[in-house]
Amino acid sequence: MGTLSDAFGRTASDLRVSLTDHCNLRCTYCMPAEGLAWLPDESVLTDDELVRLIGIATSLLGVREVRFTGGEPLLRRSLVDIVQRTAALEAAPEISLTTNALGLARKAQSLAAAGLDRVNVSLDTIRSDTFTKITRRNRLHDVISGLEAAHEAGLGPVKINAVLLRGVNDDQGPELLRWALARDYHLRFIEQMPLDAQHGWRRHTMITADEILASLSTEFELSPARESRGSSPAELFVVDGGPATVGVIASITRPFCGDCDRVRLTADGQVRNCLFAHQESDLRGALRAGASDEELAQRWVAAVAGKLPGHGINDSRFLQPTRPMSAIGG
């Protein structure tokens, strides 16, 4: 049918699929200690529905990459089967997983055998006390075991996504980078985004890309990578002459909306054409009402066509979306 294109010349070829809004951590910058009201089970897409929509995206709409997200996607019991079925599609995409890595040690080999290509693991610190403070869970050892298992299973390059929080771990960037380099993990620092359920994000408390780079530069020599970043959100810097790099995803202070190639499908079957969108397009209702693949594809095309030029965070009129990150998918 064509591609998922918008009025500003961007084409979405990278699909982020949320498998659940549940999570087994309670990160302070994501959700309150008591958790959230989860989506009703009946509203969540079934495995068959998920795989059908992914198949439509890859065969009819030009999607080439699929990343499974959450919440925490490892909590979806059928994850391995979903990966296997996705890998078996006629227009098979590259398949990745964004995870907190709790439980990854048990599933890394089976996920690799099913067709998973690589993983992105969220890890903000390698200090047990800081990890417990941020996540409200004493599970750092499980994350490290998960990373090791992913590396051994060949799910690489193994990437780590880290958020620095002022007064919590903002002094630990060089330490985390040194640790990641020693294990051949690819580290990416992400500016904290206004996607927390509590709506407590404040610009003046956010650690900026400039601050991240200044901190890393106290111990490492950094130089901009020569290769083009393309549609990648990470700006790469060569560490100590290379070949290793570190990335900075500066969604707030250095927005890259003009090169965005992503579209999102929530666990309850809604298309979101931007993390910060205030509108969603319902595919679940049409799917369950008997819509054909072509009709669902047309709805998807229309959803992406209305994408705004940017996220608008730097506009004084910006309003944080109602859904938090855990209910959107990264």
What is the fold's blueprint, element by element?
Layout: E1 4-5, E2 11-12, E3 14-18, H1 47-60, E4 65-69, H2 79-87, E5 94-99, H3 104-114, E6 118-122, H4 128-135, H5 140-152, E7 159-162, H6 173-182, E8 186-190, H7 209-216, E9 222-224, E10 235-239, E11 245-249, E12 262-265, E13 270-272, E14 281-282, H8 284-288, H9 293-305, H10 325-328
Parallel strand pairs: 3-4, 3-12, 4-5, 5-6, 6-7, 7-8, 8-11
Antiparallel strand pairs: 1-2, 9-10, 10-11, 12-13, 13-14
Plain-language structure description:
The chain has 330 residues and is of the alpha/beta class. The chain has a single domain, classed as Aldolase class I (TIM Barrel), CATH 3.20.20.70. The protein is built from 10 helices and 14 strands. The longest helix is centred in the first third of the chain and has 14 residues, at 47-60. The mean pLDDT is 94.
Compact overview of the structure:
The chain is α/β, with parallel strands linked by helices. The chain has helices spanning 47-60, 79-87, 104-114, 128-135, 140-152, 173-182, 209-216, 284-288, 293-305, 325-328; strands spanning 4-5, 11-12, 14-18, 65-69, 94-99, 118-122, 159-162, 186-190, 222-224, 235-239, 245-249, 262-265, 270-272, 281-282.
Keywords:
single chain, 330 residues, alpha/beta, TIM Barrel, twelve-stranded mixed β-sheet, two-stranded antiparallel ribbon, 10 helices, globular
